[in-house]
Amino acid sequence: MNNVLKFPRKIRKYSEKFLSDVSPLAIAKYVQEKEVNISWRAACAIAGAEIASVYRDLVLEEEGIDKDIIEDIFNNKEQDANIIDGEYEEKG
Questions:
Q1: pTM above threshold 0.85
Q2: Helix/strand/coil (H, E, C) string of 22-53?
Q3: How far apart are CA 38 and CA 32, in angstroms?
Q4: For residues 79 and 31, which has the higher predicted lDDT (pLDDT)?
């Protein structure tokens, strides 16, 4: 008789489950229902930004990182402009 060993699957983090289960289109439709004067493009942008924000917060929580680190990283407006322009060079 053969014994079959079943190993537990690797447990997915909640942030990954959220990201795979969330529906950007459903959120965009919800945004349009709440604000009828908004374009589909804008509704999709809002949905994407909201999903990214929630995902970021979940990952930081899972990693045990304080959310204040975001402000610490992006506190220099001149540096932010350089990053957006693609001119950021790491000093070291």
A1: no
A2: CCHHHHHHHHHHHCCCCCHHHHHHHHHHHHHH
A3: 6
A4: 31
